[in-house]
Design brief:
Layout (H helix, E strand, L loop, with lengths): L1 E3 L9 E4 L2 E4 L5 E2 L1 H5 L2 E3 L20 E2 L46 H21 L46 H19 L3 H14 L4 H13 L8 H14 L2 H26 L2 H4 L3 H25 L3 H27 L8 H24 L3 H20 L2 E5 L2 E6 L3 H43 L1 H26 L2 H20 L6 H51 L3
Antiparallel strand pairs: 1-5, 2-3, 3-4, 4-6, 7-8
Helix pairs in contact: 3-4, 4-5, 5-6, 5-7, 6-7, 6-9, 7-9, 7-10, 10-11, 11-12, 12-13, 14-16, 15-16
């Protein structure tokens, strides 16, 4: 049996590509004519029979590829499929690419082993010299910020100061670095789920954090938020949210407490309002007395929880009730607008039945608005609700039903005169209620202002005492300046001149004196008046600067009074 043996490396692993035989060990390429000269006799075990190799009469022309690249450059495996270029020289001078694969040599393959090892050493040396050193891969730890709840103030994370080399700073919570890193990673997952409104998964991640660190404020805050947004009628969890938020505040520091309080108060109001709105959507589908009663019952059901939140976190019930009234009023406005669109503007659609249905729906909306006027606590909300009630009553008074008579539509159904008067009376009652609400709002605002001012000055006694001392000093200065004006000698002279002028005036008008005497009195009176004008000018040049100073001091006193009584 015969096989081809490479004259360079002695291997017989050849592949024919594009009419050229390529050795898969050393990469040498032979034409078909040259490959015929490389046939040798082998036995059944694949060993070359000694003396059976045919010696070539001429030197074998080996196909090589030269390259202008640096010896250290790497090559792709598919470059071996390029078209061969026959070198004019009889033997290969440079080998472009060497792919070394360890193979099992035969009994007489010492030459092959030597060539392969030489090629391996050459390749390894080139790679060490030319290949740039690859840096070891490092895993960067992600620094994760704590959870920031939606629609709330962002809470900054206090970073630990840089630790000395080889001495990492111990975490403040007493947990290891890896544990804190795991907690931060859970925060990323929890916040991502929370932002996607996947509150169930967010709560699970918060629970995982609490299991590791039971005093983690952000985890308790997240758990309370998730429990609140998952509050439904069968599973009411607002009380659970209040307890979670309370645990968050208990574990918080004094510096963080204000931020957590602001977030908890905001979230508590938003979650309570959202829960009520979810449970009163039946009014949109079927506006009637039953759905209005359901709205009142739902509000009464949530009221005890909000009072508890007020006692625990200081949630302002005024803000909660006003926001709730505003949102329910928007729902009633939507129902009223839909009824108006259904009733239409053309007479063809305003039939007697449509008019009766229109009045019925609008009356239910008006009844709901009347209830919301009592619930609202702010001036703007109450005014907007009253404006809507008045507008709807007036719309009903002007509207009517139509019937077709021949080719024309004539008015058919109208509200009676007694019903018009009844609706006008309801408008007046609503306006009177608004006036009473204004009085209550002003009283409440004044009381709240006094409470806030008293609390503020309890916390800032030094500032208050400073303002009071300044006001006392200003009052004393004003008193001294007024006294200095009264003690001026020229004022006494002016007063005497004015008294003298009065006396001459009386003598001039006395008929018992002769005309000559009265003329003399008149002349003295004119002289005295001239002296008075001159004296007033002299006094004005002295008094006017004093009056200006007194005016400035009084303005400063007004400013101090405003600061003491301003709305805090």
């Amino acid at each position: 049996m015969k096989k081809i043996v490479c004259e360079l490396c002695g291997e017989s692993d050849f592949v024919k590509l594009n009419g050229v035989f390529e050795c898969q060990v050393c990469g040498a390429k032979y034409s078909v004519a040259d490959a015929r000269k490389l046939f040798v006799e082998v036995d059944d075990d694949g060993n070359v029979i000694a003396g059976a190799q045919s010696a070539p009469s001429t030197k074998t022309n080996v196909t090589t590829q030269r390259t202008n690249q640096a010896p250290s450059a790497s090559y792709d495996d598919d470059q071996s499929a390029e078209n061969p270029v026959l070198a004019p020289k009889p033997a290969p001078t440079t080998i472009r690419r060497v792919v070394v694969q360890p193979r099992t040599p035969g009994n007489d393959s010492s030459v092959v082993r030597r060539i392969v090892s030489s090629v391996q050493r050459t390749t390894q040396a080139r790679e060490e010299v030319t290949a740039p050193a690859r840096p070891q891969a490092t895993i960067k730890k992600v620094v994760v910020k704590p959870v920031v709840v939606d629609k709330a103030k962002q809470m900054a994370v206090k970073k630990n100061p840089p630790a000395a080399p080889n001495k990492p700073a111990a975490p403040k919570n007493g947990l290891g670095v890896e544990t804190n890193q795991m907690i931060q990673n859970f925060f990323i997952l929890a916040q991502t789920a929370y932002d996607s409104e996947n509150f169930m998964d967010a709560e699970q991640y918060a629970n995982r954090i609490i299991e590791v660190d039971p005093t983690n404020c952000d985890a308790w805050l997240m758990k309370g938020n998730c429990a609140g947004w998952q509050t439904f009628t069968p599973g009411f969890r607002l009380v659970e949210s209040i307890n979670c938020w309370n645990t968050c505040l208990v574990n918080s520091t004094e510096a963080e407490r204000e931020d957590y309080l602001f977030t908890v108060r905001t979230n508590c109001i938003e979650i309570a309002v959202a829960y009520i709105l979810r449970n009163i959507q039946d009014f949109k589908k079927d506006p009637c007395e039953n759905t209005i009663n359901k709205i009142k019952e739902t509000i009464d059901f949530v009221e005890p929880m909000m009072k508890k939140a007020n006692q625990t976190f200081g949630v302002e019930l005024v803000v909660y009730e006003d926001k709730l009234a505003s949102n329910i009023s928007a729902l009633a406005n939507e129902v009223s607008k839909q009824a108006t669109q259904t009733f239409g503007k053309r007479k063809e659609t305003q039939t007697d039945e449509a008019f009766a249905k229109f009045i019925q729906i609008q009356d239910h909306c008006i009844n709901l608005w009347d209830f919301l006027m009592d619930l609202a606590k702010k001036h703007g909300t109450v005014t907007a609700i009253l404006h809507t009630i008045v507008k709807m009553h007036e719309t009903i008074i002007r509207s009517c039903g139509y019937k077709q008579s021949g080719n024309k539509f004539k008015e058919s159904m109208k509200i009676s005169m007694s019903e018009k008067n009844f609706r006008l009376e309801r408008i007046q009652k609503a306006k009177k209620k608004l006036e009473e609400k204004f009085v209550d709002i002003r009283k409440r605002d004044r009381v709240d202002q006094k409470i806030r001012n008293a609390k503020y000055w309890e916390e800032h006694p030094e500032e208050k005492q400073q303002l009071l001392d300044e006001r006392t000093q200003l009052d004393h200065e004003i008193f001294e300046l007024e006294n200095s004006k009264l003690k001026m000698p020229k004022l006494a002279e002016l007063k005497k001149l004015e008294e003298e002028a009065i006396r001459f005036q009386v003598l001039k008008d006395n008929p018992t004196y002769s005309g000559k005497e009265r003329a003399a009195f008149m002349e003295e009176l004119q002289k005295t008046r001239k002296l008075i004008v001159t004296k007033k000018r002299e006094i004005a040049s002295i008094i006017n600067p004093i009056d200006d100073k007194i005016e400035k001091l009084k303005k400063r006193m007004v400013t101090i009074d405003s600061e003491l009584n301003m709305n805090r």
